Structure formats: C-alpha cells, structure tokens
Amino acid sequence: MKRRDFVRNTALTAIGASLIAPIGVFAGPQVTNLESEDLTLLPKIKDDYTLHFMAIGDWGRNGEYDQLEVAKQMGQWGADHPNDFVISTGDNFYPKGVVSEFDPLWHYSFENIYTAHSLQCDWYPVFGNHDWHSDVDAQIKYSKVSRRWNMPSRYYSKLISIGTGKANEDEVAKKGEKVKKSNEKALLVMIDTDPFLHEHMADYAEKQMQWLNDTLSKTGEDVKWKIVIGHHPSYTVGPRIENYDTLTMRKALSKTFEDHKVDIYLSGHEHSLQHLKPEGYTHQFISGAGSELTRVTEGIPYSRFQASEHGFMYFAMDANRLNVRAINLEGKVLYQTELTK
Ligand SMILES: [Fe+2]
After folding, report:
1. pLDDT digit string (tens) for 137-189?
2. Under CATH, which number does the domain 51-340 receive?
3. Global confidence as pTM
4. Domain limits of the chain?
5. 185 alpha carbon to ligand 1 midpoint, in Å?
6. pLDDT, tens digit, 9 for 90 and up, residues 154-167
7. What is the three-state SS of the chain?
8. Which residues lie near ion ligand 1 (Cβ < 5 Å)?
C-alpha cells in the first residue's frame, strides 16, 4: 500500500469510528452471556423422547455431490431438535478410505464439512466397503485425534440408558399410582460388514458373528430396543435389490436377527433413504444419502418408504416408542414412522 493510500484509509477509518461511536452510546445495555460449559445446545423444538440421534451414510466426497448441503441441514436440525449423537453407516471416505489418522481427507471430507456446533457431539461410525480400500484401522486411531470421532474397534457395542418410557409413565399415572423410575436401555451394535463378502476373510466374519450373537444374547430384561448398524443392507429397493452383497448379508444375518429379536437393522451402501419391513421381526432402515444418489424402485411389497433424495435419518426414542424420520437437505420430513412396544 502506498503511503498516500495508507493516510487516506486511516483517515476514513477514524471518521467511521467517530460516526459509529455515538450509535453505540444510544444502544441498549450490552449483555454478556456466560459461556456454556456444556456442548449440548438448548434445542428450540422439545419433545418427550429420552434419546435422540441422527444417522448418515456414504458421505465423504470433499463436500461435493451435495455432501456440504446435507451437512448444513444436519447442523440446523441438530440446533433445532434435541440430539445426543450421530451414527455413520459407513463409506466414510470416498473413493478409497484414508491412509492414516493424518490423511488430509479428515479435514476435506469430515472436519471442515460437519462444522456446526450441534454436530460436535459423539460420532459412532462403522466401516463401508470404500473404507476398506486403504487403512481401515486408521479410522480407529483417529478416535485419539478427534474428541467426537468414537470408534473403539472394528466392531463394538453401546448400551445407552433411555429411562422408563412415556407410555408406561402415562399408564401408571392414569391408575393414580406413583411412577417408578427404572433404567431401561437401548443396545446399539455396530458391525463390520465388508469382510462378509470376501472368502479370504471368512474366519474374521465368523468370529464377528459369534461376537454378535454373544452380544445380543447377553442382554437383560432392561434392554428394550436392539439396534444393529452395519454398512451393507440385507434388504434394499435400490440398485442392489438382489445382488451378491444383499443376498450374502441376508444369508449371514437373518437368523441372528430373528433369534435375538433385533428391532432395527440400520445400514447404508445404497445411496438413498429407505424403510423396509420384510417377513420376520426386524425393520430395515437405510440411510446412505449423505452425498451421491442412486435410484430406488417403487412398488416392492416389503418397502414402506423409499426416496432417492439427499438427506439423513433422525431417531427419537424412549422405552416404548421408537420414532424414525427421513429428512432431506431442505429440512423437509419426507417420511415418519413410529415403532411401539
Ligand atoms: Fe458402500
């Protein structure tokens, strides 16, 4: 900057400051809010469910294919609604996973995309097939770099308190009895599905199935909901409706889901939003619309909802109710359903 310009700019700044200063004098008192010690924002829209989480899948594309727009909407939804954590249903990094916990893709496809304050909560991911192309375990190591990325191992479970349940409380209160507070729980089981599709990983897949059966069977009466999360769906009305991936997962998981009365299998892999209820106990949800989209087929008998739209899912639950919403990138609720027990 030339000296003459510097003098002129400084003079203009000084004039500006003198013009602005009196306005500040007439403004109302400056309120300084104390900083919140809690990351959780107070949501604008309250409900009477006790546990809330969002689920997104198939997202890591450097912000492209509307990844950034979906992320912004998730941030807005999280600011407006109660939310405890985020589930990632896999294919976290396209095209070939990450090579280490220092890979720049952590910034390009995750940290600099899901920037909203409301999304600085715990994230519980599973691996997708694309994550397996580089060092999958780097995504476990990243849990030591990021506070919000929580992946303790390739497959793992979370037991979460959900309280008594509003329907139970209402029922007891109607009888004029005192509501007994109990500590019902939801069991979330995250599995690593890609190895099921490769013969050379059969031993690994079998060991994991033993763990899955053990984990689902060692639950007490207090576990009200059993939710399994993996990348590959066992039913879909997307392009992989009857392909090798889908049929292999169906063969591997169906009996276990039926034996242990798994309420929900939540997956990704298909780039759409779906709710399917094939024969049997388990409801199937697919949330894989975090960036690129693929087509869906309408009119399949076991499908209750399908949309080839960018978005995510939102789960709100207590001991008796499990509400699921599919939300697009404009924040529109495309579909809502509620399971009860
Ligand atoms: Fe996938």
Report:
1. 999 999 999 999 999 999 999 999 998 766 666 766 777 776 666 789 999 99
2. 3.60.21.10
3. 0.86
4. 51-340
5. 30
6. 999 999 999 876 66
7. CCHHHHHHHHHHHHHHHHHHHHHHHHCCCCCCCCCCCCCCCCCCCCCCCCEEEEEECCCCCCCCCCHHHHHHHHHHHHHHCCCCEEEECCCCCCCCCCCCCCCCHHHHHHHCCCCCHHHCCEEEECCCCHHHHCCCHHHHHHHHCCCCECCCCCCEEEEEEEECCHHHHHHHHHCCCCCCCCCEEEEEEECCCHHHHCHHHHHHHHHHHHHHHHHHHCCCCCEEEEEEECCCCCCCCCCCCCCHHHHHHHHHHHHHHHHCCCCEEEECCCCCEEEECCCCCCEEEEECCCCCCCCCCCCCCCEEEEECCCEEEEEEECCCEEEEEEEECCCCEEEEEEEEC
8. 91, 128-129, 269
